[in-house]
Design brief:
Largest sheet: 5 strands, antiparallel
Strand content: over 45%
Helix content: under 10%
Length: 191
């Protein structure tokens, strides 16, 4: 169970959905999987029964990334429609729409202990959101010259971002600007 805890994985087609989907296991309710894909729908899938039990509608583009806010029974989705949505699994609806990106949002990283969400888009922009105050504008963290393909948060408060040109940069979530960086021979696909 530990190998796929809170990780986004690509699944083979599930008969209930009929296409490949991004998926995220719900920790507090391990019998469910949250899945999403190009049909713009977030689905709560029963792991035991093998079919969707609830669908969430609202995105207008392919859902590209998922994250779980464990303490609040909430799932966070990013989309090619340039938005990030916070979904309450208890209420069964979208509670907030985050709109500060101008290009498709591709990556999410979450620090549950600090209540920070970091997002990155095809424009190379990285933004930081306070999950306790989602109605406030995001904070700009940094920018790459190419679409960001991978994003991660460290326990020391740094964002790791890798882009399509092969640059991996470390940004601070407490100070403006790049801390350091490295170049890889090709596209960075995991941080």
């Amino acid at each position: 169970a530990g190998a796929w805890t809170r990780q986004m994985v690509r699944l083979a087609p599930i008969d209930a959905w009929g296409r490949s989907r991004a998926a995220l296991r719900i920790e507090r309710r391990p019998e469910f999987i949250v899945s999403a894909s190009s049909d713009h729908v977030l689905g709560l899938l029963s792991h035991r029964l093998g079919f969707p039990t609830r669908r969430f509608y609202g995105h207008r583009g392919t859902i590209t990334a998922l994250a779980q806010d464990e303490g609040h029974a909430r799932v966070i989705s990013a989309s090619a429609d340039t938005t990030i949505r916070l979904w309450s699994l208890v209420q069964g609806q979208c509670t907030h729409v985050l709109r500060d990106h101008s290009r498709p949002v591709r990556c999410l990283a979450l620090d549950v202990s600090r209540r920070i969400l970091v997002s990155a888009c095809d424009g190379g922009e990285i933004r930081q959101w306070c999950l306790d105050k989602p109605d406030r504008p995001s904070r700009w963290v940094g920018c790459h010259d190419a679409p960001i393909k991978a994003l991660g948060l460290t326990s020391s408060g740094h964002v790791l971002a890798g882009d399509a040109q092969g640059f991996l940069r470390r940004w601070s979530v407490t100070q403006q600007g790049v801390q350091d960086g490295a170049e890889s021979p090709g596209e960075v696909v995991a941080a």
